[in-house]
Amino acid sequence: MPGCRSTISANLPPIRRDRVELSRYVRLRAVPPRPANENRRSSAPKLWHWALAIGTAPTIGIALALSILI
Fold first, then answer.
1. Which pLDDT does position 47 carry in this prediction?
2. What is the gyration radius of the CA atoms in the chain, in angstroms?
3. Is the whole-model pTM more than 0.85?
4. What angle do CA 25, 16, 8 make, to 5 degrees?
């Protein structure tokens, strides 16, 4: 019956663990959970590469121009 929730194992004593296993709680290199309202792609482009290139371009250009003049 769907309304009946009793199980056969209810008579057994609960299994007790003496030590805590961190592997049950710590997930290394796993994809973090995402909120339901996040619309970004999971593999969004890394914009910091472009920001770094745009920021260093004038410095490299000036250094190159000075090296040609000297």
1. 84
2. 29
3. no
4. 105
User: How would you write the chain as a 3-class SS string?
Assistant: CCCCCCCHHHHCCCCCCCCCCHHHCCCCCCCCCCCCCCCCCCCCCCHHHHHHHHHHHHHHHHHHHHHHHC
> For residues 62 and 69, what is the distance between their CA atoms, to the nearest angstrom?
11
Q: How far apart are the first and last CA of the chain?
A: 91
Residue type, 21: E
Provide φ and ψ at 57, rounded to 5°. Answer: -60, -45
d(CA 8, CA 17): 21
The pLDDT tens digits for 27-66 are: 677 777 777 887 776 666 678 888 988 999 999 999 999 9
